[in-house]
Amino acid sequence: ERGVGSPSPHNDGVTNTTDQLGESKVKKEPEAKREISLHSFIQRWNSLNPRHSSSRLYAELLEELPPEELPKVITSKLDGATLSSLVDAIDKELLPKGAYELSAQVLQNLCSVQRFEMVSMFLSRKEKEVLGKMLDAIEANCRGGLVSSAALRKAYGLRSSS
Questions:
Q1: What are the phi and psi torsion angles at 20 (to 5°)?
Q2: Residue 7 in 3-state DSSP?
Q3: What are the φ/ψ torsions at residue 15 (nearest 5 degrees)?
Q4: Which string of b and e fits 107-117 if b means at least 16 CB within 10 Å?
Q5: Three-state SS for 102?
Q6: Are the beta carbons of 150 and 136 closer than 8 angstroms?
Q7: How many helices (DSSP H) and strands (DSSP E) are in the chain?
Q8: What does pTM read for this prediction?
Q9: Mean of the per-residue pLDDT values for the chain?
């Protein structure tokens, strides 16, 4: 028999309690935001092939991982295809949802990934145009100076916005 306030055996966020009169009460705990362990994220990340995985899959992972963890996950595995896939995920999935702050944080933290400086030198003209438009949208919609748009433009090899 479970004691007072013990969780149900299914670990589904339900707690059974007994009130002062001895009557059983069922209390539904609020759902916590699903967090992903770093190990689980790395396994899922490594299973993605940037040449064949959809931008939606990358966006889902980016939504689950705190942006400051990106350098730990990507480590020295950043290549042009991965960077392009991440930019594509932000452009096609995150920004249309209004995730401007997350997008800015991802772009900012990508700058801290090993090999970023070298890989970003090889962004195509089209990718740079997309990044410029993304940064314009972020700048127009992020409040409180979350990130320096000028610093991001410089890091990604873009010209200043006019």
A1: -65, -25
A2: strand
A3: -120, 130
A4: bbbbbebeebe
A5: helix
A6: no
A7: 8, 3
A8: 0.71
A9: 79
